[in-house]
Amino acid sequence: MTKFYNVVTRKTINKENSDKHIYHKVGVVKVTENGGWFLQLYHQPDTDYMIFPNHNDNLPVIDFGNNEVN
């Protein structure tokens, strides 16, 4: 089954004693049944990007903090 994932940007607004996060959807990642990964960004219409692992080096791990992924 094909799966879709939202691609978002995050803006942090400082409000008195706490931060508020606002997320804007900027695209979509599509994962096909055959294992293909495709990225479409709304500011680049009619352009699909293919996503694949780097076979020569390990990809870097990006730490977005504990609250980013549930």
Comma- or semicolon-separated keywords:
single chain; 70 residues; mainly beta; four-stranded antiparallel beta sheet
Chain-wise SSE layout:
Elements: E1 3-15, E2 18-31, E3 37-41, E4 48-51
Antiparallel strand pairs: 1-2, 2-3, 3-4
What can you see in these coordinates?
- By secondary structure, this protein is mainly beta.
- The protein has strands at residues 3-15, 18-31, 37-41, 48-51.
- Strands 1-2-3-4 form a four-stranded antiparallel sheet, with no helix packed on it.
- A hairpin with a 2-residue loop joins strand 1 and strand 2.
Chain oligomer state: single chain
What is the average per-residue confidence, as pLDDT, rounded to a whole number?
Answer: 83
Strand order of the largest sheet: 1-2-3-4
N→C terminal distance: 22 Å
What is the β-strand count?
A: 4
What sort of overall outline do the alpha carbons produce when their principal axes are compared? extended
Report the order of strands and helices: EEEE
What portion of residues belong to β-strands?
over 45%
Low-confidence stretches: none
Major beta sheet summary: 4 strands, antiparallel
| Broad structural category | mainly beta
Number of helices: 0
Rg measurement, Å: 16 Å
Approximately how much helix is present in the residues?
under 10%
